Fold this protein.
Amino acid sequence: MTHILALNGSPRRNGNTETVLNAFLRGAEEAGATCETIRLSSLTFKNCLGCNACHKKGVCVITDALTEVFEKVMACDILVLASPIYSMTVTAEMKGFIDRGQFLWAQKFKTQTLVFDEEHLKNHIGVFLSTSGQGLPIMFDAAFPVVRALFNDAGFSYTENVLFAGMDEHGGVKAWPESVEEAFTRGKELVQRVNEP
Ligand SMILES: Cc1cc2nc3c(=O)[nH]c(=O)nc-3n(C[C@H](O)[C@H](O)[C@H](O)COP(=O)(O)O)c2cc1C
């Protein structure tokens, strides 16, 4: 069975991002996936210290709420990184999480203890789900390489963007029910595709 871990970087409860994320996951569940969501703003965690200790041992010197989150990241089949656009990129919560993934980069390129073969990359999908206030599609451009960094380091093929630009222009997610319907369909179709023989 496909297991999805969704990390929500929006600090706003029941906001635009959480609403479309929940719809995406409902669609995925309807197609047979199991889902867990973690709200990063409800966790207490430190930012990367830049100590580079992970370059030697491939392990982060910090033990906090993100330690378990990274264990869950490495155990799921589909990882959804969900974040609204703040100042042209992901929120501070999401960026803090991604920076803490530096130990995975170190395992790949410094200690060379982490290798993902083609089969693993085929079976592990990275999804970026985002909402922006303004309607210009370029609003997501600065976020793409940021989430790609984590997907690459953690062994996920980053193949899916689920983007809703122009939330402010639409009057928010509640005034734009089509966005919720589309998110539901995208979640359902992704899991159906993954489970195709
Ligand atoms: C601090 C802050 C910065 C924002 N920066 C941008 C931005 O650079 N571009 C944009 O299109 N929208 C921006 N927005 C609007 C949000 O991306 C948009 O309203 C989003 O849908 C909010 O999602 P939420 O309800 O999950 O918080 C910003 C909002 C906040 C609070």
Summary: Residues 10, 12, 15-18, 84-88, 131-134, 139, 167-168 surround flavin mononucleotide (CB under 6 Å). Strands lie at 3-8, 34-39, 78-84, 125-131, 157-164.
